[in-house]
Amino acid sequence: MRCNVSNHSFTTPVSFTARISLLLNALVWSLPVFFIKYLSYSFDPYTQNFYRSLSATVALFLYVWLRKREELQRVMGEWRLFVPPAIIFAAAQILCVEGIYKITASLAAILERGGLVFVVIFSYLLLRDERGRIRSKGFLSGASLSFAGMIGVILGDGDFSLQGHTAGVLLLITSGTLYGLYTVGIAKATKYLDPLAATFAIVASSTVIFGVAAAIYGEPGQIFQVDWKINLFLLISGLIGIAAGHTLFFINVKKVGNVLTNTFLLLTPLIGVTLASLFLGERLTWIQIFSGAVLIGGSYLLVTRGQARTFNENH
């Protein structure tokens, strides 16, 4: 594959459609922590990872085979690009799910998004076209407000403790480090490829790894021992959290860059507690409401003061 690329810069403001895509990604990825925690009562982490990923793989394959066959063939021709990030993602996901099994959902949410620190570090070191954004005052201001607001949203419920959660915390910190490397690999691998086809390549490769892990350490036969409603929920969680979530993520990385996409995802805990308040009757505290306003303000700065990278390409 030959690509002549020029005009790499951050000169185009984030468009309205890109903002909507970022918001949808945050909405979709606010749910997996709850999916994983709910399914933990019926499946071991290895089995859950495998079947959630398998459902996403099948759905993505059917779509790209029917609608984007040429792009799929192109991605498969570049399959070596996806092996390293798929291995890193699978390791990060296994550690993440294992960690969520051991700690509370609120603590998991903050540690999962805390991986942004590693995303920024690795992006600055390894992605030259991200450095200008990371150094900009608009990004630094928006990211700082967003991170502070996210912490306030999670800690503001008054029921937050690290006691007895050391193993889960270490697993999620390690997962966050690997996730930072994974996002850099994805940014490089998908820059000139179709996001949906690229999503299929990553998810399918990861599913193979999850399958091996489930066969060795898990109990794949558990799906035959639980109620069909649990299996349906398992299927839906894979379609939403993995197929839809990763597709939106790859689209956003391609449109606005790796760092901005990941920083905007700091909104996910706020969306999660808001949904819990609306549908589960959980009470929002004043600290959470104030912190949510700070978080929204930071996210607004990111998309108004931030800029999307632009480049011309010829294949």
Description:
- With 315 residues, the protein is mainly α.
- It is built from 15 helices and 2 strands.
- The protein has helices at residues 16-28, 32-39, 45-67, 69-77, 83-102, 105-113, 116-126, 131-135, 137-155, 166-189, 195-217, 228-256, 258-264, 268-280, 286-305, and strands spanning 4-13, 307-314.
- It has a two-stranded antiparallel ribbon.
- Helix 2 (32-39) runs antiparallel to helix 12 and helix 7 (116-126) runs parallel beside helix 10.
- The chain is globular, with a radius of gyration of 19 Å.
- 50% of the residues are buried.
- Mean pLDDT is 83; it is low at 1-11 and 308-315.
What fraction of residues sit in β-strands?
A: 5-15%
| Quaternary class | single chain
Task: Profile the largest sheet.
Answer: 2 strands, antiparallel
Number of helices: 15
**DSSP strand tally:** 2
Instruction: Give the terminus-to-terminus CA distance.
Output: 7 Å
Question: How would you concisely characterize the structure shown here?
Answer:
Helix content is 74%, strand content 6%. The protein is built from 15 helices and 2 strands.
Task: Please write out the topology.
Layout: E1 4-13, H1 16-28, H2 32-39, H3 45-67, H4 69-77, H5 83-102, H6 105-113, H7 116-126, H8 131-135, H9 137-155, H10 166-189, H11 195-217, H12 228-256, H13 258-264, H14 268-280, H15 286-305, E2 307-314
Antiparallel strand pairs: 1-2
Helix pairs in contact: 1-12, 2-12, 3-4, 3-11, 3-12, 4-11, 5-10, 5-11, 6-9, 6-10, 7-10, 7-13, 9-15, 11-12, 12-13
